[in-house]
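Figure 6 in text form: structure in, sequence out.
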């Protein structure tokens, strides 16, 4: 156009230049993306290759040092090793090798925990655990205990250690990824295994499963808060009744309606994962029971056992079979310990439950005002025995702590177990505990038990057991028996607190006076009724100081067990399995009619969308519920949330923040309150309010609280709720379980049935955002039938391997969740028929 300046050529050039620039930029971005993708693939491939290097090869022949004769390790299709050799020592060598193949990282971490050396790997996050274990001096007492073992036990521990070290040598020689992926992630050096390490791991179990210390401290804290003995008996009651172990004869009882039982069954934490500081509810638990031939349909004895410990991935239990000179034994082991702790031979079966023996006492020690390095004794002030200990901490300066002991036991810091809340100024707290003995022969008992052929021999083997206290349930082909094993402290009849509360350590009557003889431990042999068992319940009701305990693990499961056992004149393997998997809550059946007595179907229908209408819907669901804690039902969640809110409302105004220490509902407390036993209904009145609230008011308010929480967390459609969504079994990896992305590969989560008080026990977390997560349960289940021993069955909660890339990491988990089992056979041909691999260990040439 005339008169208009031309800019088109420049614009074209600019567009061409921009186009060329964008094309070049795109090419380079594309190349960079390809390069990054290739690098990522290579990095992932390298990581996978390094991690997979530590996967064991099960079809292998390995030349090893320290072996006298060849060992054959046959792994069946569940990866259970069946270990054969010409001598018992070589069999234990094979078990050590197999444990190290599958669970080396777990073994090393458990050993570091017992030694108080976790902070060398994990930094300051585990300093509290290390400090506690150093003060308890678990590892030093383990070293001392080696010297008092008999020759048979010491030889077994030495052979086992040699087997573990043979695997470590193979890993180092063949560059097998340092034995586990975690070894690469955390760069944790691996020291050779020693016999003392196995003893230390057994002592570590005692630390993790004994709850008397926590009970004593909680008693003291609550007593100080309430200052009313009667109200203390309400909230922390003694277990009622005279004790249950052996059941009476079937014909001597009022007949039970078995059809009703069948109809009922037809109804469908912050801190490091390795922390040892726990709530008392997470002490040891377990179920085990047995039937004599007179109560067995097939005419042989029966035994069922399922020990309860904290759930983890991998689980604590490892299934194995050992072919000893006395015969084959098969069952559950714990990696690091060369013994079948729960299992059977061809002639004898055994199970263990936590006995809740009062084998811990807290002593309040008075310091010398003129010299704090001394404490008061009945004979005047004496110096503490003390020793410095240096804790090395990754990426931080080391910390030196002073270990101290009194004549009563080890001195604990005020920060441990809330001891500072009950220790007056100028005093410290010490702990007396049988598990800290430097003459611990507990493993001798477990190794001897594997060679026992009769109930009598099994009972005799238990004499050398020290801690943690257990109920040993035995069944040979003809008889059944149960005995408490473990050292029982001898206390003075004039003890001020009878061991219920911390007591002054300088008074002679509060001090231990040795231990009771093994013969004094409770025992039940060949009961006339033909059935005995233990669900951590009270077993005897003996006067102090022969009382065994004031604090028992459970008062509820045994009620359901009694009914199931007495509902049949004779039992079978399948009826024992049915009982082991039973999820009917006796607690729900007994408490719901009590707390809801004035609420069922009362009043006019409330308008839709109101809290009253939601309450009516919840009560209507609960009214038709059988008490079955089934994962697919909504009622268990409503019930559990209601009871939890109810206990909180009852105690919070009296206890304040101390109420947070009561994470789990105490059914006896709730019953005492609603039955107004000895005036316990006073708990229903809110102290700070002017009106006098009734227990009906509390029940209604607590139900509304529960429904609000359910609505905020799970939604308002009550009929659509699933208990299993809230009650997921949480098998978390202790060290990798919190790592982003990786946690999806190493943690195992499962919807589960059961609850705190069902025979299929799934103890809930009790606190936090997910208070009903299942975190503590039966990591091992076994049922043994001595009419046909090879028809016996068992299962573990996760899988045999601790390597998350292995198919055996979680292959048993779904079987466990569904209540299924795998064969527990001593038939070597059956193991060979479907073996996933056979490892042959051959002695190195001299």
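Output sequence:
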């Amino acid at each position: 156009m005339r008169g208009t300046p031309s800019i088109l050529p420049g614009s074209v050039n600019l567009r061409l230049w921009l186009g060329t620039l964008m094309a070049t930029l795109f090419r380079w971005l594309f190349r960079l993306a390809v390069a990054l993708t290739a690098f990522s693939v290579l990095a992932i491939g390298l990581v996978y290759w390094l991690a997979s290097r530590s996967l064991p090869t099960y079809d292998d022949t390995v030349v090893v040092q320290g072996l006298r004769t060849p060992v054959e390790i046959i792994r069946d299709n569940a990866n259970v090793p069946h270990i054969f050799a010409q001598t018992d020592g070589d069999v234990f060598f094979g078990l050590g090798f197999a444990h190290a193949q599958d669970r080396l990282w777990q073994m090393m971490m458990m050993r570091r925990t017992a030694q108080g050396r976790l902070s060398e790997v994990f930094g300051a996050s585990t300093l509290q655990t290390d400090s506690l274990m150093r003060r308890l001096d678990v590892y030093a007492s383990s070293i001392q205990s080696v010297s008092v073992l008999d020759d048979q036990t010491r030889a077994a521990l030495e052979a086992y250690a040699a087997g573990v070290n043979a695997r470590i040598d193979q890993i180092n020689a063949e560059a097998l990824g340092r034995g586990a992926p975690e070894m690469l992630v955390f760069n944790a050096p691996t020291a050779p295994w020693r016999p003392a390490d196995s003893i230390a791991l057994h002592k570590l179990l005692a630390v993790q499963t004994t709850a008397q210390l926590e009970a004593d401290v909680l008693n003291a804290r609550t007593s100080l808060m309430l200052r009313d003995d009667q109200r203390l008996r309400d909230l922390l009651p003694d277990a009622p009744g005279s004790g249950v172990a052996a059941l009476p004869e079937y014909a001597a009882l009022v007949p039970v309606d078995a059809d009703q039982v069948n109809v009922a069954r037809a109804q469908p934490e912050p801190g490091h994962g390795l922390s040892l500081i726990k709530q008392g509810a997470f002490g040891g638990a377990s179920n085990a029971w047995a039937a004599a031939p007179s109560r067995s349909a097939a005419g042989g004895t029966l035994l069922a056992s399922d020990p309860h410990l904290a759930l983890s991935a991998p689980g604590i239990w490892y299934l194995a079979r050992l072919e000893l000179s006395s015969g084959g034994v098969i069952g559950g082991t714990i990696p690091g310990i060369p013994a079948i702790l729960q299992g059977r031979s061809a002639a004898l079966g055994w199970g263990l439950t936590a006995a809740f023996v009062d084998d811990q006492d807290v002593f309040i020690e008075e310091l010398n005002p003129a010299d704090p390095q001394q404490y008061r004794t009945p004979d005047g002030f004496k110096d503490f025995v003390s020793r410095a200990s240096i804790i090395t901490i990754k990426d931080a300066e080391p910390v030196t702590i002073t270990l101290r002991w009194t004549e009563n036991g080890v001195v604990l810091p005020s920060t441990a177990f809330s001891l500072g809340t009950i220790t007056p100024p100028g005093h410290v707290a010490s702990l007396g505990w049988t598990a800290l003995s430097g003459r611990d022969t507990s493993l001798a008992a477990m190794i001897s038990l594997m060679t026992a052929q009769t109930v009598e021999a099994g009972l005799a083997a238990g004499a050398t057991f020290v801690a943690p206290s257990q109920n040993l349930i035995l069944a040979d082909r003809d008889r059944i028996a149960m005995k408490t094993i473990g050292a029982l402290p001898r206390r003075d009849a004039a003890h001020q607190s009878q061991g219920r509360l911390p007591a002054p350590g300088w008074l002679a009557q509060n001090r231990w006076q040795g231990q009771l003889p093994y013969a004094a431990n409770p025992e039940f042999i060949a009961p006339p009724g033909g059935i005995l068992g233990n669900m951590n319940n009270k077993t005897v009701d003996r006067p102090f100081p022969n009382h065994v305990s004031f604090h028992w693990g459970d008062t509820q499961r045994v009620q359901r067990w009694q009914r199931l056992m007495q509902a049949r004149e004779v039992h079978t393997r399948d009826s024992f399995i049915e009982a082991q998997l039973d999820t009917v809550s006796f607690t729900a059946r007994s408490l719901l009619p009590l707390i809801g007595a004035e609420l069922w179907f009362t009043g006019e229908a409330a308008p839709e969308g109101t809290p009253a209408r939601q309450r009516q819907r919840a009560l209507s669901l609960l009214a038709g519920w059988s008490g079955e804690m089934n994962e697919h039902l909504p009622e268990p969640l409503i019930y559990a949330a209601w009871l939890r809110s109810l206990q909180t409302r009852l105690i919070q105004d009296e206890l304040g923040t101390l109420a947070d220490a009561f994470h789990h509902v105490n059914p006896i407390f709730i019953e005492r309150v609603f039955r107004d036993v000895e005036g316990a209904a006073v708990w229903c009145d809110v102290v700070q309010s002017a009106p006098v609230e009734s227990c009906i008011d509390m029940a209604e308010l607590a139900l509304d609280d529960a429904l609000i929480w359910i609505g905020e967390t799970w939604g308002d459609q009550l009929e659509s709720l699933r208990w299993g969504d809230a009650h997921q079994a949480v098998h978390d990896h202790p060290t990798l379980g919190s790592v982003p992305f990786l946690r999806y590969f190493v943690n195992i989560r499962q919807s589960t049935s059961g609850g705190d008080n069902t025979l299929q026990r799934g103890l809930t977390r009790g606190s936090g955002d997910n208070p009903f997560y299942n975190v503590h349960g039966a990591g091992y289940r076994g049922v043994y039938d001595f009419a046909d021993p090879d028809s016996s069955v068992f299962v573990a909660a996760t899988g045999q391997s601790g390597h998350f890339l292995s198919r055996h990491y979680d292959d048993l988990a779904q079987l466990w969740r569904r209540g299924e089992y795998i064969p527990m056979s001593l038939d070597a041909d059956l193991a060979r028929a479907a073996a996933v691999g056979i490892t042959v260990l051959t002695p190195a040439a001299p």
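Caption detail: The longest strand covers residues 302-310.
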